[in-house]
Amino acid sequence: MQARQVAALAEARKKADASRRIMNELLNEQAQIHSKVDFEIKTTQRIEQRHKDAALNALKEKHREALFNRRQALAKLLNTEFEEWSKECMGLEESMEERKAR
Prior knowledge:
mainly alpha, 0% strand, rod-shaped
């Protein structure tokens, strides 16, 4: 081979190596950017999910409280009716003869 051909091949190899090095640097830089973007997206999604969960839990708690209040009101009503029924029954004490007569 001639010196010019060897120099041309060496120069072509240097250009190819430089091009490869630049491409690798760009790929590494893109990978870092992708990693940061992915982190930001996932973090944002987690924050949004926490906000949704908090809103849902607040709504569930509100419904639980309403249910508890309804149950208490029904329990008071039942106790009141039972007390009235008990008083009515105690006032209607019958003797054995009255029961047999019925």
